[in-house]
Amino acid sequence: MTAPFPTPVADETQRLLSPDELAAALRDIGARRYHNLHPFHRLLHDGKLNKDQVRAWALNRYYYQAMIPIKDAAVLARMEDAALRRIWRQRIVDHDGDAPGDGGIERWLKLAEGVGFSRDYVESTQGILSATRFSVDAYVHFVKERSLLEAIASSLTEMFSPTIISERVAGMLKNYDFITKDTLAYFDKRLTQAPRDADFALDYVQQHATTPELQRQAMAALTFKCNVLWTQLDALYFAYVAPGLTPPDAWTPGTGLVPETTTAQAAGTGTLGPHDVPRLPRGVRLRHDTVRGEHVLLAPERTFDLDANAVAVLEYVDGSRTVRDIAGLLAEKFTADRAVIESDILVMLNDLATKRVLER
Amino acid sequence: MNAITPTAPVLPAPVGLLAELTHRCPLRCPYCSNPLELDRRSGELDTATWQRVLTEAAALGVLHVHLSGGEPTARNDIVEITQTCAKLGLYSNLITSGVGGALAKLDALYDVGLDHVQLSVQGVDAANAEKIGGLKNAQPQKFAFAERVTQLGLPLTLNSVIHRGNIHEVEGFIDLAVKLGAKRLEVAHTQYYGWAYVNRAALMPNKAEVDRSIRIVEAARERLKGQLVIDLVVPDYYAKYPKACAGGWGRKLMNVTPAGKVLPCHAAETIKHLEFWYVTDHSLGDIWANSPAFTAYRGTDWMQEPCRSCDRREKDWGGCRCQALALAGDAAATDPACSLSPLHAKVRDLATEEAAETPPDYTYRTIGSNVQPNVRSPLSEDVSL
Questions:
Q1: Is the minimum CB–CB distance between A261 and chain B shorter than 8 Å?
Q2: Which residues contact B139 (CB under 8 A, 6 or more apart)?
Q3: Considering only CB atoms, which chain B residues are within 8 Å of A267?
Q4: Number of H helices and number of E strands within chain B?
Q5: Is the pTM above the cut of 0.80?
Q6: Residue B228 half-sphere exposure, CB side, CA atoms within 13 Å?
Q7: Using one digit for the tens of pLDDT, what is the confidence trace for B152-185?
Q8: Contacts B223 to A, Cβ<8 Å
Q9: Model pLDDT, residue B381
Q10: How far apart are CA B204 and CA A286, in angstroms?
């Protein structure tokens, strides 16, 4: 078989690596190719993405999460040793849970719901990028077609995941006000599950990659898996960051979301629409706090810290402009799409209305 | 004491000033947060001093001023003081009983730019409310006051302090808030300081009643979403973790007493070894940064175990110092309201025990009283466990 993924260490040495050298070579692959290095992840963790870009990530990544147990079942089906299967099946249990409402996929759905999606829309996977589907499917095919050693070695990206998870959870909690600890519950579990799984898989690879060729295959398998992850982020970056070319049929902001004010509607107080005129009632004031150098919204017994976007919106809330007028002014100011802005500011203004600090 | 140095690099600016303009009040609520030794009218700060304090507060970074008391409208200069807040851009919040001269001054307060009114209601049923507040005919005055507040278009918050004498009325408070046109309702379980500590046995509800009240509030929040915001303060003694008292000692809040003493929280004077500074001797900024009372428990350096190594230490800041002193005998101890405190179980048992007994009569607050707290302590031997 020709080598589709040349790996320098093995090619240069052409000798059998010791178990420790093999582990080091595998770690080196992660150090250079794991997706924590991808620009999209840097943006995600540093709080540089807007809410819709975070949504695109959560939506697409769901397909990967949902296919993991199918991938692991394919690996399991090839294991002839019951002891091995007993260990591997834990991965399926972790992801699927033992009962409805449990497991990693469920927690990912919670994350997607936490950023505003309707569960049905996410589960349908109809809005994901084709590149996401192709990458993930390639992974499932890979573990079915290659040797068991390669299938297991491809899971070794878990060796690198605790780092990215810690960075991600800390970064996202710090930088996005719409992300809560509950939303990120998925990663809490993975912090303990991933190292356990990776320890076992590494041990297996070290024991079974007994020739230079097998070691090269194991490293190639891990490289392949890093590429599966990397490619998904390339596609997200291309479609939702720059140049922002979203393929036809892929998710666009505003679709698949749960209206945030359903309950207010039920209560009969109504929801702010594009043609309504929002105003700050008496007792709610936008003020520049000169001591702290930031804008705040002062309201009864509370203060809202505002980011630059919220300030830009509230500065146009004057009791005579409609939401659509405001979206138009902002679209001009920031040369952005009016419809996208309108849907974003409706969410923000309705949230303030629910808190009783904005009226129409 | 291991206080942080005044030049500590990041001293956050205070966001709130609780201005206790006077201790005088027509009501005599047995859970009043004022100290047992109330300031007399003759010792109150004058108008010019309050105006200077407010000017210093605005420069320091204060955003919200809570005009409180006692009954703040008992001050003849309440309109001038409110106007000063408005001129300085400070958000003014009038915390009032709505009785006595409050209604007569309301339109003038509106005209000078008052931002918000928080009106206390002691009960829903008038007889019960007036028994708790210790003043006949208070309820109709409160309703008339609330009506005028909403007529003027001022935002109204109702504040209900919950205890065993009115915990059966929680649904009623919610309905009342809606009926009076309030945008916010505070369902605040009694915090046991000041007069409430003295009256604890008369006020402490049982756990089942507390749980029921929480369920009612949660259901109402959902039902009234977008119409009424309900803030809930749960009682410490039944909580799992303590509250970040005043948002953390010396982190968010300054409290100026009628006589000009500056406290990190309204109960801080119960910690007798603390040295408080007066606005008549020091600027507010100097007091915030340097007064011994503020530096004593600011940050985490003063903490003991289990707080010291706890990963919640910068969430709740060890809970309440005054409660630690009252219940654990040491102001630097973990607040026994915390489930991690060694005294927590005893405190909870004490609450359960008191709530099961026939409530004693209220000790109403009065100026010039000589009330000595006669309250059972979790440290004493007579607590049966």
A1: yes
A2: B126, B129, B130
A3: 223-227
A4: 14, 9
A5: no
A6: 28
A7: 999 999 999 999 999 999 999 999 999 999 999 9
A8: 267
A9: 47
A10: 41
